[in-house]
Each structure stands twice: as structure tokens, then as C-alpha cells.
Amino acid sequence: MTDLRKAAEMALEALAWGQVDDAKEALHQALAQPDLAKVGEVGVWGHKREWVGLTSDETWEIFTHYDPLQYSAFSRAIEAKLKEKNA
User: Fold this and answer.
1) Cα(74)–Cα(49) distance, rounded to whole angstroms?
2) Could you report the per-residue pLDDT of 22-41, keeping only the tens digit for each?
């Protein structure tokens, strides 16, 4: 069950008991949650999450911090930065 569906069910139950404020609060909390879709998936709020790449500045920062000839450290640094941006 999605968070939005759970919130809708809680709101309906609260409304059935005349608890309008509780219903509003349940929906506000659900809508405040981030859309946790993975890249390429359509999330709870109906939009597709797009891939976020590195900027030129970020690429340059990694390039100047790591020796590109040390391939494993260089590639791990790039991978870590991309995971951070696309988490």
C-alpha cells in the first residue's frame, strides 16, 4: 500500500467520524513526503524521475582530485557522486 493510499484511507475514516482536522492533517503529511521513485520509474505523484548527471564543475573536481590513471579509484569516485545525486 502506498503512503498516499494509506493517507487517503485515514482521511476517509476521519471524515466518516466528523474529524475534518485529522483528515486534513493526514493528507498534508502524505503530500509532504518526497516522491521515492527510482530513476526511470513513475513515482507516487505521477511524474517520471529523470537521471541526473554530473556538471562540468563536478567532473573537473573529480578529475583534478583523482589520478585518472588509477582507474579504480577514479571510477569509484564518479560512481559515488552519481549515486549521491540520484539517490
Assistant:
1) 27
2) 878 877 777 776 655 565 66
Burial grade of 23 (CB within 10 A; 0-12, 13-18, 19 or more): buried
Closest Cα partner for 84 from 63, 55, 64, 60?
Answer: 55
Positive or negative CA dihedral for 42, 43, 47, 53? negative
Please state the domain extents for the chain: 3-32, 56-86
Phi/psi for 81 (5° steps) reads -65, -40
pLDDT at 41: 65
Residue 47: per-residue pLDDT: 64
Q: Is the pLDDT of residue 45 over 60?
A: no
Residue 8 burial (CB count, 10 A): 15
What lies within 8 Å, CB to CB, of 33 at 6+ separation is 3, 44
For residues 48 and 51, give the distance between their C-alpha atoms in angstroms, rounded to a whole number. 10
